[in-house]
Amino acid sequence: MSNVREIVTKAIVAKGKKSVNMSHTIETSIHPYSILGCWIINHNYQAYKEQDVVFITGSFDINIWYSLDNNTKTDVLRETVNYKKDIKTKQIVEDYLEHSDDVLIKVLKSPTATNAKIYDGKIDIDLSFEILAEVLGETKMQVSIFKSDEEKDDDEFDDLDIEVNEDFLNTSKPN
User: Fold this and answer.
1) Which of the two ends of the chain, N or C, has the fewest CB atoms closer than 10 A to its terminal CB?
2) Does residue 62 contact residue 81 with C-beta atoms inside 8 Å?
3) d(Cα 102, Cα 29) in Å, to the nearest integer?
């Protein structure tokens, strides 16, 4: 005999993924001769949901190692970049409570510089990263409840007549 119960739980009710490709230009009074390296660090972000779109606001620091004075000196240029992106989500659970939407963000690919070039005293950087957004909501699920084997066995033992020696521990051992 089985019974069906409903459990209310939080579950992923919608998902969306976005690959972001963007460019950023840094204007500088220092005229770099060549770019030796470019790193993206300190990626911070927050997300919120409106209807079926997740909005992500974030920032990261760009560090550019460059040479100047005809490759005789090096220095690092730092700049913080702010961004706002939207991710359209697809609903994967039909029935859920709308009032409890939380958003989970996973960075699938961290921001990286894919290209950096110098032109007219400016540095142009191409960046890419990938983000997955998952929307949590309260939903119901149905589970079947079955009577356990222990409960069945207890009924079977009620009919047995067993004699128990209650003085078993109190009897002395033979020498």
Assistant:
1) C
2) yes
3) 45
